[in-house]
Write a structure and sequence with these properties.
Structural class: alpha+beta
Number of strands: 14
Distance between the termini: 22 Å
CATH class: Alpha Beta
Oligomer: single chain
Order of helices and strands: EHEEEHHEHEEHHEEHHEHEEEEHHH
Largest sheet: 4 strands, mixed
Strand order of the largest sheet: 10-1-12-11
Number of domains: 1
Shape: globular
Strand content: 5-15%
Helix content: 10-25%
């Protein structure tokens, strides 16, 4: 796909994400409540550093070696998702044992989408973690589409959304698209015998309504708009200020979900005094996620913050964009109220 075509883009400010999982639940209720989709979390908020969902997805491979050669990695197995947990609802609600029985999974689980939530790294007093919302990146060059032998995955020219045609996908006995995607954002539905993934809330955006994850975020940390809208916040943060970066750019798929990297608090020395010799979150770790551009992005944000702390204060367009005082600033051209339009949520490909 040519870089100058219209492309839907998302920016997520990791300094504002509080790990509430509202976006996760909004997506789950809207898109993945059908048979065979229990293990699917098209949107999830992982705690970093962490293994993520599916477990250790960052080590599974996929994407491109350089600009051209497709690399097939590992396809996640059900144990990487942790399986589907069944709970003892009947026993708790109808068993007649009152407070003697508590709600819990029937079998001991071994993994799940939030297994390592709020578990971080580092040593006291400099332990750290941050939240990382993840969903399909709707890449410029989706490796999943090239890996598919039946051309069942298409990147739409009008908005750049990557969609799976499940009628074509059902002919495939081996979901190689899962091996091609380095972000492991395609799930396989054994009941429908098809790969399924985030559809960018296409039925909503076609009606001028923002995706559910954006609209429902109480922290105002997710923006959506077309990247070529030079007046939009997404364009300004990605192209003008260059403080929003793709996750794992070395996968070479050209992801269109961008992240404002976390600043975190100041580091403390052994006496509890401020230690400015190194950042609280190791910069090496942030580079491993967002590439070498993270150094400059963090420095730009710090410089703009310093302007606002001066006396007299200096204006900062960047901080005004990131603060988003008016919630509709997050929605781009998709500011319609979902209650005022008819939206179908029956299938991802409608």
């Amino acid at each position: 796909m040519a870089q100058n075509q219209t492309q839907l883009g998302f920016v997520i400010d990791l300094n504002k994400c509080m790990g509430c999982q509202t976006c996760t639940v909004a997506c789950k209720l809207l898109w993945t409540d059908a048979k065979g989709m229990d293990h699917m979390w098209w949107m999830k908020v992982n705690t970093m550093p962490g293994h993520g969902y599916p477990k250790d997805w960052q080590k599974m491979g996929g994407g491109y070696d350089g600009a051209e050669k497709l690399v097939l990695g590992k396809k996640p197995a059900m144990e990487d998702y942790g399986g589907v947990m069944e709970f003892n609802y009947e026993q708790v609600f109808y068993g007649g044992k009152g407070p003697e029985v508590h709600l819990g999974p029937k079998q001991k689980p071994n993994w799940g989408p939030n297994w390592d939530e709020d578990i971080g790294a580092g040593e006291y007093p400099n332990g750290y973690y941050f939240y990382l919302p993840r969903f399909c990146n709707h890449c410029w060059k989706p490796a999943c589409a090239e890996a598919c032998p039946f051309q069942a995955i298409e990147k739409r020219a009008e908005d750049g959304v990557v969609l799976v045609d499940e009628t074509k996908c059902a002919r495939c006995g081996d979901p190689v698209c899962m091996a091609g995607c380095p972000y492991k954002e395609i799930f396989f539905n054994d009941f429908a015998h098809a790969g399924q993934k985030c559809n960018g809330c296409l039925p909503r955006i076609e009606q001028g309504v923002a995706p559910a994850c954006v609209r429902q975020c109480p922290g105002r940390c997710i923006w959506v708009n077309f990247l070529d809208d030079e007046e939009g916040t997404v364009h300004k943060l990605v192209k003008q200020w260059k403080v929003a970066l793709p996750l794992h750019p070395e996968f070479n798929t050209g992801p269109n979900v961008y992240y404002v990297p976390p600043l975190a608090r100041v580091r403390l020395d052994e006496n509890g005094d401020v230690d400015e010799s190194k950042p609280h979150i190791p910069i090496e770790y942030l580079r491993s996620l967002f590439g070498p551009g993270v150094d400059e992005a963090l420095e730009i944000i710090k410089q703009e913050m310093a302007k606002r702390r001066k006396e007299p204060k200096e204006p900062s367009e960047l901080l005004d964009l990131l603060i988003a005082r008016h919630w509709k600033e997050l929605l781009g051209p998709f500011a319609k109220d979902p209650g005022e339009v008819k939206i179908s949520s029956q299938a991802a490909n409608e």
